[in-house]
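Lab meeting prep.
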Amino acid sequence: MITEFVSKNLSDFIDSIIEGEKINSLGLITSLNASALLQTLGNKLEDFSVYPEINSFMCPHDIFIILPDINPTAENIGKIKNTLSQKLVIFSTDSQQRDMLLRLGLVNEFDEDLLFCFSYNLKTYNNKRNWNNPEGWANPENFDKYRW
């Protein structure tokens, strides 16, 4: 099932992300054969790297995609989203990972029978709110009127 997904649907999914997010470099973490994906998407990206596991030799990319054959830990995901990339997509078949991914701030993109997808995008993670700014704090219009 995983190899069918990689060969059929993943290239379309990644292509839509590349176009929508203006991605130039992609880090794919999988031990599966990704040569078909590389042929399809390689000419649209400046850098396309495939890593067989999450390790310390990975370099920063615009986005990282983790396929279901890799089972990342919370520390691995934190390392990627905090130091290596502002965008992350994780595909998984392990239902026990759902709670961990939600706790780490990832958003559920889709949930099929045996496969689900979570994503993280720093741009949309914490939207700026009008009330969360220094202008409205502590009644600044009263600073010269009253002594606290």
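Slide two material, second protein:
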Amino acid sequence: MANFFVNKSDIDGPAARIAGEEAGHISRVLRMRAGEELTLCDGEGTFYDAVITDIGRDEVLTKIGRAYPAPTEPGVSITLFQGIPKNPKLEFIVQKATELGVTRIVPVNTARIVARLEKESKVQRLQKIAAEAARQSRRGIIPQVCAPVSFDKALELAGELDLSIIPYEEEAGLSAKAFLRGKSAETLGIFIGPEGGFEPSEAELAANRGVVPITLGPRILRTETAGLVAAALALYELGEME
């Protein structure tokens, strides 16, 4: 069944209004009609079974049935601290991280980045990509794509989380599996370097601030691969891929 996001303020008792791009997608792309069923999501983790009662070009009205917690949201909230890569890699990362179940993507200005993410319009585009991926993968929330932060600010944000890891090519002893197995956490941070990786001083600073260096194996992964692998491993080891 098709899944669409609505503002919670547009849910009024047994009725809900769908507007904007979501309404246009229903009417012009999917060409749905009154009487057809769909699933609504309020973006806060609740799904609603609904039936279209009236459909226009820019507005769709529905009747709501059952409300229930989104079964697609993991129990652990993952923040991906991503060293800013060249375009279009960050768009790919945002899309796939959303599909996997990541809650927040924070672009990070690190020492070795060769690209910048300075325009607000670029962050808005990334947020739109997250919304589209959330709809496709039936997420219960739309992950937040934050404005870029400094590496020190990223470490400050990580300090608010239960656990944080930093896959680092110089770490050979501690695997993600060994560190995460048997642990429980409500919040987890994952630090990923840009194309050139982290400076040794950055990895050392992260470790001193409580971010645990781990290895993802003997092969060096690209920046657009490493975060997705780390997130998938974390979700698996924390029992969220069953």
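Talking points for slide two:
The radius of gyration is 20 Å.
The first strand starts at residue 3 and ends at 5.
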